[in-house]
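Contributing new records

If you add data, match the layout below exactly. Sequence lines come first and carry their own label; structure lines follow with theirs. Keep one chain per record. Anything else will be rejected by the validation script.
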Amino acid sequence: MKKPVTRVVASAVTMISLLGVTSLCVAAAPLKEIAPTGTLRVGVVEAPDAGTFFVAKDPTTHAVHGVTVDLGADLAHELGVPVTYVVFPNSGACTEATHSGAVDVAFMPVDALRRQQVVFGPAYYQVESTYLVSGQSKITDLAGVDQPGVRVVGISNTTTIRASARTLHHTVPKPIDSVQAAVEAMRSGQADALALGRDTLKPIMAQLPGSRIVPGGFQQTSISIAVPPGRPAALAYVSTFLEHAKTSGAVRRAFDAAGLQDEPIAAASQ
């Protein structure tokens, strides 16, 4: 992770030129909108393992690491301001903090309800939501999850649990506050299936012997950059930043550093 820098942003015109932003007016004060406190506050969401979206904490230093940490550091570096990470147990809490302006920028899965709370820029990853099922459950496919008596858990106030609830007709997913707590529910035999992004479920499967990820999925969406509403200059700036990060290889490097060499980057916006 890059160390935050504190160089003067009088060089913003040069930086914007390097990013290819010829139409964004510096007089619109994008920095004031993006980092009004002088420090870029990046909302991130914790899980046992870092992935395309979730971050993990170092057990010794408690510093967070993951793709969104690296992208936040890159954005702060371009802006010339320090960065701090505000860690949340789930993306719903991160969404609410972004909506209120308690954080300046975040990366999160997109759905219709969330679009009413924050403003999204481009995507950097396309995610499929599916289920991890326990070995004891004997479930082998999506239809097997949607049966009376099957105990499904998901993360509270997220796009995934909302999509799970829409698509299940014979059982109802139970909301749990964090990924770690949901994994513990599976481990202790209190749940038969866990609804989550496929990429996040892969390392979890290794922690739960006998568990498996069912074929197919019940939701496809994007993980995109987001800012609070009412900050058009911030949205324009971070949108250009993320598109450049995709084409320059910065997102690819963040994926590779997190051990996600096989995960594809979302295509550039048209």
